[in-house]
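Hi R.,

Here's the chain you asked about this morning:
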Amino acid sequence: MKKSGLPRSSIFFTSKVPPRSMGYEATKSSIESTFKQTGLDYVDLYLIHAPYGGKEARNGSWRALVEAQKAGQIRSLGVSNYGVHHLNELEDYISELESKNGKGSGAEISVGQWEVHPWLERRDIVEWCQKRGVVVEAYCPIVRGQRFEEPVLQPMVKKYGKSPAQVLIRWSLQKGFVPLPKSVTHSRIDENADVYNFELNGEEMKSLETGQYAPCAWDPTTSTD
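And here is the predicted structure, written out as tokens:
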């Protein structure tokens, strides 16, 4: 980042609390490590990567993030891979903090990150977020390329002259998500960004409602510890 010469204000930097660092003290150490490794003055978004470790650890991690936010080290807080039951638990903990320490003292869940695509729509989680104004970031929006040959995509690929990846990213954008396609290849990065000159119609969006629950990555949302 420093070598790029870009001003800090033009970079959005996200970090995460890894599963091995769950709990209040471990998360404090993780945050400190982030700043040592990056040399940044602040982090734009800090997420809890997964809801592992149990309720006490989850709440402790959130408390550590809230303290760092109050100290000006973090701009926004969020979670990743939380199921609705985890989200409800965190919402209750935020209310608990506010009842003890005043309104706003528990911070807010600004962003949530999940694997989301037509074969894993996560409607319950998305609805929970939309009701509360939580931004949904969709990782694996192109399903790691595993669904590019799906028959349902081919009419749109042909009609718009776009790749399957572009159609899937467009679907994600029209759903109101922030898609996070991952690539280190410059041509693919350019391709993934070239999705603002076409729009899927209602019938096409409807055709991508597959009703399937088929993760292509891990799925901590189902964790019950």
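One quick note: The two ends are 38 Å apart (CA to CA).

Cheers,
M.
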